[in-house]
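INFO batch 0412 | record 1 of 1 | parsing
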Amino acid sequence: MQRFSGKVALVTAGAQGIGEAVARRIAAEGGSVVITDLQQSKIEALAAELNGFAVPLDVTDREQVDAAVAATISRFGQLDVLVNNAGGCIVNSVPEDTTDEDWHRQLDLTLVGAARCIQASLPHLVKSRGNVVTISSVNGIAAFGNIEYATAKAGQIAMTQNFAARYGGLGVRFNVVAPGTIRTPNWDNQPDTLERFKALYPLGRVGESEDVAAAVAFLASPDAAWITGHTLPVEGGVLTGPGLLDLTPSGPFRKDYPTD
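INFO prediction complete | emitting tokens
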């Protein structure tokens, strides 16, 4: 498939993990990718591999955001897709002890950072009748802890719905992908945690960055031309409830099914 032939996509936090997988998927489908991140050497190497364009970017700095979008237009003359992937859980304290500064730092990176990128991109997305896909989290839909992070992620979903309603008449679509636990470099020092998390997921595994990239590519493509304002969970079924099936020989739900 070449769903992004002739299209230009800007991906924030594209140096590794989900952002890298998204950039690779869009490039594989014929798109030109602008890869932004604070890790300049990584995005330059990835951009060279994908014949893309690397732009260092801190989404908490409005001047840098505006400059990244301006550089995209200068290089390619258009912007068709914005993938808001920048963010992270930077506050993980006991909620009662969270300071105002903690709240501001978390919201500024994850929620306001995404808003800055949308604001800078909107004039160009209106011109191209393009779209925005924001990477939120199941934490923004249900209670999985990390209250400050979850609040910022829930804010992304509400923001997306409001932008979708406001700009749909101009042909710009806004959607969200909400991943569950994804195996990214952020978990490199916690392999045991990922192994334990498998039990939470009805599909029996944590997600891979490529799982999220596939969902992003769908929502950003013409295949989703009549979808806006929605959140697509990519979460192995965890929002339906925890994994319950015991497949041990003596397990209460054991049943032998053919596997070929």
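INFO post-check: The mean pLDDT is 93.
INFO record closed
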